[in-house]
Each structure stands twice: as C-alpha cells, then as structure tokens.
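Justification of resources, computational component.

The compute hours requested in this renewal are based largely on the per-chain cost of generating structure records like the one below. Each record pairs the submitted sequence with a full structure-token output. That output is archived, and it is also reused by downstream analysis tasks.
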Amino acid sequence: MKLATNTPLATKKSTWIDFNAGVVADGTRTIDEAAHDLMDLVLEVASGKKTWAEKKGFREISIFKDGVVL
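The structure output for this chain reads:
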C-alpha cells in the first residue's frame, strides 16, 4: 500500500496512492478518524482488495526519492 502524507500528492498521484493521510493536515478528518479509515483499508487489502499497484500488475516496490533508484 502506498500512503500520501499530503492531499496535493494524493491528488496528483491518484492512481498510485491507496490512502491519503493528508486529510489530517487538511482538517477534514481527525487523527483517530484517519487511523480508523487506514485500519479499515488494511483489513480490506488483507482480505483480498487489490492496491493500485496490484491493479496495474506491479509486484515490486521502490521508495520515492530524488535521484536515481537502483
């Protein structure tokens, strides 16, 4: 699962990001509400719901960073 720390990133990468934690910073959800939403999503994925990466057929992970990723 990929989590965004801010809503602009989640919006820009909407078909990459599985969960937008930026809703806490935006003030649209409390930390407890966002935690509950995330836990629900984790359970859904553990129960078979596909992540965006899985829907696209990707099976490898690369942490986002500036520069070359090996």
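Residues 3-55 form one domain. The CA atoms of residues 7 and 47 lie 26 Å apart.
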